[in-house]
Structures are given as C-alpha cells and as structure tokens.
Design goal:
Blueprint lengths: L2 H17 L5 H15 L14 E9 L7 E8 L6 E12 L2 E15 L2 E6 L4 H16 L4 E4 H5 L5 E5 L5
Parallel strand pairs: 4-7
Antiparallel strand pairs: 1-2, 1-6, 2-3, 3-4, 4-5
Length: about 170
Amino acid sequence: MSMFKASILFLFILWSGVAAPTQSHGSSLLRGALHCLAVKDTDWLAVQKSQAQSIRVSYAIDTASHRTENTTYVVAYANRSRTRGKVFDLIYQQKGHTVVFDVQNNGSFARSGSKIDFFKPPLGGVWTQAHLQGAIKQADQRVEVLFDVKTLSAPLSGVTCRSFVDNK
C-alpha cells in the first residue's frame, strides 16, 4: 500500500472514529489503539489519574521502515499549541476476529520552534528518536482529533493490548 493510500485510509479512520465510533472496522481500529493506550495497567496516556475529560491526538503512518508490520504513531498533545505531548509507536495486526495492538515505544517531548526534544526519551537511541521526531512532525501536518476519555476507557471486545513492558 502506498504512503498516500495509507494516509487516506487512516484519515478516514480518524474521521469515522469521531463521527460514528461503532459503525465501521476503521473506527474500531483507531479506538482500539487509543483504548490500549488509555486503559492498560500502565495507562500510557495518563488519563485514569487525571481529571481530563478528553484527549487531543494526531497520527502518522510509517510504511517504509517496517515493511512487514502495520506501524502507526499516535501523538497525544498536552496543549492546544502542540508544543508538548507524548508519542507512541504501535504495531497492530488482525488475528481472526481480534486486533492485537502492541505498544513498541514511547517518549514525552517538548518543542521549541522546529526543534523537538525528549524530556522522557524513548528506548533505542538516536535512530528511534529520529523516527519519533519525524512522526511528530508528520502528525503536526494532520488534523488534531479530540476523543472522550470515558469512551476510550470503556471495555472493548475484540481488542488485545500488549506492550514492550509486558515481557519484563
């Protein structure tokens, strides 16, 4: 699938996730990824302990770095100006009637102009940081979407959540 087609598909997923959260497989995919970031024991988005009612997110798709995997980067912004936030690297795959989401990496960032610095850096060194910085810049070019925390926190059948910390 070309980068353009993948971008259009994910944009549709984002749109349908806001407009009709339970009506299509595409919206289920996005909701599943965010669900895993919101409710897993690690609460990657830190929404369970906060008073936040909604979360601002955007995304980027990488079809070149991992040719055998479906990789999506989710960026959760801490403010409207998109100068702070968290970035997540997720791999997902369909297994029968279940979609498995696997959080591969994450980092907390701050931006000053065009410079992005990680104050909680991802694992993996310079290569990983460069890929996540690129994903943040791609996500900044896309529409920001607002999701309700209660919706993301609700139980979701057909979704399995994993992460790199589960294997420790």
